[in-house]
Design goal:
Chain A is an alpha/beta fold. Helix content of chain A is 41%, strand content 17%. Chain A folds into two domains: 203 residues, ATPase, nucleotide binding domain (Nucleotidyltransferase, domain 5, 2-Layer Sandwich); 136 residues, Nucleotidyltransferase, domain 5 (2-Layer Sandwich), CATH 3.30.420. The chains are: A alpha/beta (379), B alpha/beta (237).
């Protein structure tokens, strides 16, 4: 039994007067939509959100549902570069080094103090468990010390909320494509907190596949931006890269075969690649076109099947200009409304976590300090 | 981040000590200069879930609020990497939110500090991975524990070369990982007995206060102590 504050159910604070003496900087705002809840007003709850699920340490301060007072992310890419991938133990250590200074900086940037906070949110799943536990311990400490509600957030559920942050209230039902790190998911959302995964990658995630293809050409992590840049700059090579599971009536994805196809392409065209007859840019453009074709087709199929008039994109891969272009064209043709966050909000960030937390806070959906962390996606 | 520059005024009266470096959660509380609580429980992987519940119980029992604390002492490792980070994460957060100093104490010093003050050099050994122990040498000078070398990691089978037949105090973070042969090696050294179960939150609290009193200037913010074996150091994916 959890008898401590914060407790399972709380009454969201009705703010008319602040209990906090610290002055607020009402002018620092960026990224929020101009909606009633997003409007700058002194009686909106202010939340601190922390995300340490993978290799980015991120802290955000959000006012209301959409007024981002601060959204700071410290990338660890350089710290893992020598290993060719993220080393979980190293990521956890870096989170601990970075988190407190980042919180201090976010509070400064947001013009708020600890006393101004109404809730503390933290991503407690899925991701690297050791890394998650760093964020959770810090968030729990702060919630406990400030006697404010703690809100545990599913990082994957939070990704589409990058769209709510920038586009305001979106009409349900929605079909979300979340292409983030180790996940490629199609999520049907009927309402806030009411969602179902209707499609997922049965092997490699799309982003993983793109990173590995880039690695085959000697590019360091993260390979996604390199592949995207080349795909935008070059016409695709005519090599027929497969469109995996496109003929399958279901909504699941498979990208490991496409990765293997790229491996064989390089093996079979080594000489042409070496003598410049085939260039890296067009090869990767052709490969990425296959990834984009599958993602667009499956997402539109999911929208049609579940009768959702709109789809949203989120997750690191959807920062890709080429993919966004493909979705814009596909959605226009299909008459489906498309919502995309700006690229900086596609990748891991605590603002999206804070946005979902704001909705949970309003509904009194908070957690106790015995909240646990999970490496796997709990649905 | 709070500064660890202590004002030259009164010694800290209200102190909390947090040790999550092993499977045992160990907490202690001092109020108005008097120890008022000491918690010790086997939490294993549940430490993250129970830490604040137990901390709250301790504070509530002493009729204190976290805001009354004026010093946080934390076990900074070596030990379980994840556990060490949890304690450090909590302690540094307390420091940041409450604006109070945080002092880190290494776990080998704690282990050694739980022995009876006896003359002569002895070694604290903390078994942490399958084949290795953290090792550091100490001696008692009256009631004061004096470190006699740095913390290092050593293979259990090589301990004889390192410490000869000098006395040891040892504990294992993962007893199931110790083979009978390894236990035999560790028990083969002259043993220094522990005065209290290890880890002991009150001893941590005392060690933290001792650091506070012996400070000769600003105490830097604590950093977690990670030591890696050669095998891990040489590992490449």
């Amino acid at each position: 039994m959890d008898t401590m504050t914060p407790q399972k159910k709380h009454s969201p604070k009705k703010k008319g007067s602040s209990s906090n003496p610290a002055p607020r900087n009402e002018t620092v705002a960026h990224g929020g939509a101009d909606t009633p809840m997003g409007a700058c007003s002194s009686n909106q709850p202010i939340g601190l959100a922390i995300d340490t699920t993978f290799d980015d340490t991120s802290v955000a301060i959000l006012k209301g549902r959409r007024e981002v007072l601060a959204n700071l992310t410290l990338s660890q890419y350089a710290d893992h570069e020598e290993f060719g991938g993220v080393v979980p133990e190293r990521a956890s250590r870096k989170h601990l080094e970075a988190i407190h200074p980042l919180i201090g900086k976010a509070l400064n940037q947001g013009g708020v103090g600890f006393g101004d906070l109404d809730y503390v949110a933290v991503s407690n799943q899925p991701g690297l468990l050791g890394a998650i536990l760093v964020g959770m311990t810090v968030a729990k400490s702060m919630a406990y010390l400030l006697t404010k509600p703690l809100i545990g957030i599913n990082h994957i559920e939070a990704h589409p909320y990058a769209n709510f942050l920038v586009h305001g209230e979106l009409p349900f039902p929605l079909m979300h494509l979340v292409a983030a790190g180790g996940h490629t998911l199609l999520i049907l959302q009927r309402d806030h907190f009411d969602w179902t995964i209707v499609g997922r990658s049965i092997d490699d995630a799309a982003g993983e596949c793109v990173d590995k293809a880039a690695k085959m050409f000697g590019h360091p992590m993260p390979g996604g931006p390199v592949v995207d840049r080349l795909a935008m700059a070059h016409a695709p090579h005519p090599h027929p890269f497969p469109r995996p599971m496109l003929g399958d009536p279901g909504l699941d994805f498979s990208f490991s075969g496409l990765k293997t196809a790229m491996f064989y392409f390089i093996r079979d065209h080594r000489e042409e690649l070496q003598n410049g007859e085939i260039k890296e840019g067009p090869a990767l453009a052709a490969f990425f076109q296959a990834v984009a074709d599958v993602l667009v087709a499956k997402t539109l199929r999911a929208a049609k099947l579940h009768k959702t008039p709109a789809i949203t994109l989120s997750g690191g891969l959807t920062a890709s200009g080429k993919l966004r272009q493909a979705f814009e064209e596909g959605c226009k043709k299909a008459g489906v409304t498309l919502y995309m966050p700006p690229p900086p909000l596609c990748t891991d960030n605590a603002a999206m976590v804070a946005c979902l937390a704001a909705y949970r806070y309003e509904r009194g959906l908070t957690d106790g300090l015995t909240l646990d962390g999970y490496a796997n996606l709990m649905t | 981040m709070p500064s660890n520059l202590f004002p030259n005024t009164h010694p800290p009266a209200n102190v909390v000590a947090i040790d999550t470096t092993s499977d045992y959660l160990s907490l202690a509380l001092q109020k108005n200069g008097i120890p008022v609580g000491n918690h010790y429980s086997l939490c294993g992987r549940k430490t993250n879930q129970w830490l604040f519940q137990e901390l709250h119980t301790l504070l509530e029992g002493a009729q204190m609020t976290p805001g009354e604390l004026d010093l946080v002492v934390v076990a900074a490792g070596p030990g379980s990497f994840t556990g060490t980070r949890m304690g450090m994460g909590a302690a540094l957060s307390f420091g940041q939110v409450l604006g109070v100093p945080v002092i880190g104490v290494d776990t080998l010093c704690l282990l050694a500090g739980q022995t009876q003050p006896t003359e002569g050099l002895f070694h604290a050994l903390l078994h942490c991975t399958r084949d290795e122990v953290y090792q550091a040498a100490y001696r008692w000078q009256g009631e004061e524990l004096i470190p006699a070398g740095n913390i290092q990691m050593e293979l259990i089978e090589n301990l004889g070369d390192l410490i000869g037949q000098e006395p040891v105090v040892w504990r294992s973070l993962f007893p199931d990982m110790l083979s009978p042969d390894q236990t035999g090696i560790l028990n083969g050294f002259p043993q220094r007995a522990l005065r209290h179960p290890f880890p002991d939150g009150l001893r941590l609290l005392e060690a933290g206060l001792a650091r506070w009193h012996s400070r000769k200037g600003p105490i830097p913010p604590p950093r977690p102590i990670y030591l890696k074996s050669e095998a891990i150091r040489k590992w490449t994916p």
